[in-house]
Amino acid sequence: MSVEKDVKKVVESHGARLYDTEVTNEDGHTVYRVYIVKDGGVDLDLCADISRDLSPMLDVYPPVSGQYYMEVSSPGVERTLKKPEHFKHSIGEKVYLKLSSGDRVKGELIGFENGEVVLKTEHGEERYPLDTIRKARTYFEW
Fold it and tell me: Strands 17-26, 94-99: parallel, antiparallel or unpaired by DSSP?
């Protein structure tokens, strides 16, 4: 049984989309985070409803061993891009890439095609294969 598939079903039953999950350690506590997105935005009530529905399932099929805390939230305005669908859903936003070569690139995400991230930068249209990107995230200019 895939916990992430079941988490996705619960999230989608609330009209939202599962963005990502992560397990992290904060102040000596294990935290299982469920990031969700929804057209029109994510509010506290939606996070609470999804958390309430996930809790019994995760009691039976825990996502990690041992004690953990679960959090359900939006990935935020500035969020990490890992999966192809992250890039596809972020078209039109400003992104920052850290490449395996050590170079850093900023630009507007204008596409994701054939495993390549397509950016509009100050130098024009540039393409970066996903496997050459070490880190990617959206950013917001205040």
Answer: unpaired
